[in-house]
Amino acid sequence: ELMKIAKKKHIAVIFIQPQANRRTADIIAKQIGAKVKILDPLAPQWLKNMHRVMDVFVETLSQN
User: Fold this and answer.
1) Which CATH architecture is the domain 2-63 placed in?
2) Which of 25, 33, 41, 59 shows its CA 20 to 30 Å from the CA of 11?
3) CB 28 within 8 A of CB 21
4) Which residues touch 6 (CB under 8 Å, ≥6 apart)?
5) Whole-angstrom Cα distance, residue 17 to residue 3?
6) Residue 32: pLDDT above 80?
7) What are phi and psi of 56, to 5 degrees?
8) What pTM value is reported for the model?
9) Total Cβ atoms within 10 A of residue 10
């Protein structure tokens, strides 16, 4: 069901934490034609991390 929804909504990116299972995300991304991007909400330097998150979002959204 989730795969059908993701394909129907044209989901292009799956965001995961570095602590998550990358293999699972890669399998799902391949099945729906998406990319996997890693964002770390637990990074120690909060402000620096927020800038990185912003950069990843901008990069991802500008590609789609």
Assistant:
1) 3-Layer(aba) Sandwich (3.40)
2) 41
3) no
4) 28, 32, 34
5) 20
6) yes
7) -65, -45
8) 0.80
9) 10
